[in-house]
Amino acid sequence: FSGYPVEEVFGRRTGLHVDEGIVNLGVPQTIAENDRLPYDALVGALGDTLRVHGFTPAVIGNADGSEQELDVEFGRAVGGGLMDTEGVVPAGSVGLNLLAEDPDAPFGRRLDLDQVDEVFDEVWHDDAVVLVEASDLVRADAYRSRVTKPQRQRLRAQAIRWTDEMVGRLLAQVDPEHDAVMVVGPYHASTGVHLAIAGLRAPGVEPGLMKSAVTRRVGFVTLADTAPTVLDLLDLPRPDRMEGRPWERVARGGSADQRRDWLIAANDGALFRDSLVGPVSTLFVVAQLALWVLAVIAFRRHRPRLRRVIEVAALSVLAVLPMTYVAGAFPFYLWGSAPYWLFLITGAAVIGVLCDQLRRLGSPVDPLIGVLALIVALLVGDLFVGAPLQLNTSFGYTPTIAGRFAGLGNLAFAQLAAASIILAGLVAWRVGGRRGAWMGIAILAVAVVADGSPFWGSDVGGVLSFVPGAGITAVALLGWKIRWRTIALWVVGGVAAMIAMGFLDLSRPEDQRTHLGRLF
Known about the structure:
Blueprint: H1 6-14, E1 22-23, H2 27-36, H3 45-52, E2 56-60, E3 88-89, E4 91-93, E5 99-101, E6 109-111, H4 113-123, E7 128-132, H5 135-143, H6 149-171, E8 181-184, E9 198-201, E10 209-211, H7 226-233, E11 248-251, H8 256-300, H9 304-326, H10 332-335, H11 337-356, H12 366-384, H13 410-431, H14 433-452, H15 460-477, H16 484-506, H17 515-519
Parallel strand pairs: 2-4, 2-7
Antiparallel strand pairs: 1-3, 5-6, 8-9, 10-11
C-alpha cells in the first residue's frame, strides 16, 4: 500500500501486529465515525461472533478500477463484510491475483474465475463462512460514467454473464443438503435509488417469500437483517449490539416466476410512488391556498353561489387524502401517471359531491362529517387488515427509504389524529348530550388503539402525542373544565400508554415484536 507492506501500515494505524489474513486499513476511521453516531452498533460484530464460536470467515473479491497505473482506485470493500472488531478477516483474497487483464472489460480488467475457484476451494470447508463479491458488477457500475450509453449497457450485460458463470461454478462446490447460500444486493446501482435483491437457499427452507421481524411485511427484509440471518443459520447467538433480525420464509408466493414478477412490481411501485410524493403534496397544499383566498372573497362579497362551489371543492380536496390510499390497490405503476391523476382527482370530486348531498340530513356539518368519517374508517380499517394501502402510496411509506414497512406512517398518523379529533367534536355536537359526547370519545378511543397497538399501527410517537390530544378533547366533550393538571395528567397518560404498549409488545414472541418491543 503506497510502497509500504500492508501489515506495516495497518500496525501504524491500529497498533496491532498481524501476520496473515486480510486487513481493513480504514477501520480506525470507520470505528470513529460509528462512535460519533447514536446507534451503539458494534463494528465487526459478525466477524467476532463467528471467530469466537470456531467458524472461519473468508472474503473473496476485487473491484479495483483505474486506467492509470499510478492512480489506483481500490475496490476492496468486501473485506468489511466479515471483518472482526480489529478489522481483520483471517482467510480469503482481495489481491491482484484475482484479476485478469481484458481490454474489453471496465478499466481493462475482470475477475479471473479460475483464481476465484481456486481461492474458494481453499477456504470452503466445514465451519467456514465465505463472502464472494460480484466484483465485475461493481466495476461495471463504477465505469458507467466514462462510456457511452450503448457501451454502458453492453458492459453491464457482459458483467452479468460473467457473474452468472462465477455463481454457477461456486454452486458446483456447494452441497445443497448441508450448505446455505445467501445472495444479497447490499446497495443500489449508481443510476438511482431502487430496491435490491435478497435470496436464501438452505436445508429445510422451502421456496417462497421472506420477511423479518424488522419489516414485518412479506417480501421485504433489510440489510441489517443479513448478519443475524447468518448467525441464525449457524445456530449462534446474536450479540445485543447487532441490529436486525433473521430472515424467515413466511409465504409461498406462487411459482418462482410469480414471486419474481411480484418483487419487480414492488420495486416499480415504490419508484412510481416516490415520483408522485412531491406533485401530490404540492397539489394538496396549493389547492388549499386557492380555496382559502376564494373563501375570503366569497364571504366578504356575499357570494352564496361561490360559497357553495367552495364548499364542494373543499370537501373534494379533503377527499384527496383517502383517494391516495385507495389508489394503492391498483397497479398505476403499469398504467402511468396520467391515469393516476385522473383517478385521484375524479374520485376526490365524486366523494366531494356525494358528501355534499348529506346536507339534506338537516345540518351543514354533515358533509364534513362524511369526509372525515371516510378518512378515519379507511385508515383504521386498513390497519386492521395489515396496512396494505400504506405501502407505496403518496402519503404512506416506501421501502426505498426503509424507515417503516408496517403499521402507520407519520403522514397517515397526522391525518388519522386530526380527522378523528375533529370528527369526534362534530359528532358530539351533532348528536348532542351525553350520548353525543360518548360517541365522540368512542371514535377517539378506536383511533388511539388502532394507531398505538403493536398489532396494528405500532406508532410509538403517535401514542405519545395522540393520547394527550385525544384525552383533553374527551374532557372537553364531557363539559369538564380543562386545567393545567388536566393537561399534565394526560401527558403522563401518554407516557403510560406508550409503556403499556411496550410491555404488551415485549410479551409477544421475539420474531413478532415491533421496534418498541425490541427497544424494551
